[in-house]
Amino acid sequence: MGGSHGIARGFFRLHDMIGNTIIPHQYQYDDLKVFSKKYRQNIASFFYTQTSDRLFVKKIILSKEKNLSIAHFDQVVDYWQYLHDEMSLNVVMIGMLPPIKTSPINFDYKQPLQPQLQEYISKNSIKMVEYTDTFFSEKLKETGIKYVSKILGFDLSLPKDLINRGKITYSDNRHLSATGEAFFGKKLNNKVLTFN
Predict the structure, then answer these.
(1) CA-based, 20 to 30 A from 90: which of 32, 104, 115, 183?
(2) pLDDT at 64
(3) In terms of domain of life, where is this protein from (predicted)?
(4) How many domains does the chain have?
(5) Is 79 among the domain residues?
(6) What pLDDT sits at residue 22?
(7) Is 18 contained in some domain?
(8) What b/e string do you get for 75-88 counting C-beta neighbours within 10 Å, with b at 16 or more?
(9) What is the pLDDT of residues 132-152, one digit of tens each?
């Protein structure tokens, strides 16, 4: 599950939106609590992920560690801790993908891609995702909720991993393409299975 993919109705996170964004499906995660209570005997595990940039009060490319919203971070932790503790459900949070500067639709396809890739990478985005990985990992360890970093789980190396077998692994600047899901999913699956 995730804010805009998986079973979510899209455009929503477990935390309040930062800024003045209007949320069309504000209470869908309340619906999930009701669903979980009713069907918890049939639920083996919940896997959750979301984009990292939605947890920062500034654009992640420009953010520093102090720009991580602790209040929004705590909302994510509190939600899954409730399902884990109150309903005895297994929860695994899968970390975040570092956003790139430019969506692949805007790459210059008239030129060879390989020489362009470095300019699309934000070292600061990677640094901030690594910071949120550490933050979530330490906090969730206290709750018994498992955390898997995407950077480590994917064995992610940017910009090299932006292309796999001639195909682009990102669908936009913050989500994986079908190629990326297949390529990184195999690697991540091995990491997740070590928790079972």
Answers:
(1) 183
(2) 96
(3) Bacteria
(4) 1
(5) yes
(6) 59
(7) no
(8) bbbebbbebbeeee
(9) 999 999 999 989 999 999 999
